[in-house]
Amino acid sequence: xxxxxxxxxxxxxxxxxxxxxxxxxxxxxxxxxxxxxxxxxxxxxxxxxxxxxxxxxxxxxxxxxxxxxxxxxxxxxxxxxxxxxxxxxxxxxxxxxxxxxxxxxxxxxxxxxxxxxxxxxxxxxxxxxxxxxxxxxxxxxxxxxxxxxxxxxxxxxxxxxxxxxxxxxxxxxxxxxxxxxxx
Length: 183
What we know:
The protein has 183 residues and is mainly alpha-helical. The chain has 2 domains: 3-84, no CATH class; 96-179. Helix content is 80%, strand content 0%. The protein has 8 helices and no strands. The radius of gyration is 31 Å and the shape is elongated. The N and C termini lie far apart (67 Å). The relative contact order is 0.05.
């Protein structure tokens, strides 16, 4: 008999424990269940204990509840560590942390200005294909406007986040508009 053979029996009482018996750690989970029930570490013994002893079902539910609570505590610890790291990054005043955005932004803006200037200069050269160059200029203008819009949106969201406010999403604004609350 394999641990997966008693998974259904255990799963009727403790669903998470039962499904864990099917997995790659089924034998380890089965041994823990057997130890908690005070029976031999075998699928047969666990299956018999669950079917014969009503107290075994109660113990299994307690084991499962304890495991879920421990998992929630561990998840909370991980999230707290991530949040602490994020707060430390936001509070850091290092130019290495925040300066790259500015440097990248200025480099991009100057590059776009140079390309745009080259396109405009080429428009006034004899024999140039003005409609095609105008199309290229409009594409460059669209790229610059898109990047600027995205950056403004990001900066606004960061500003709201530092004030502890949750920025509205597009769908939130649409719902408010449709319901007449945000006109």
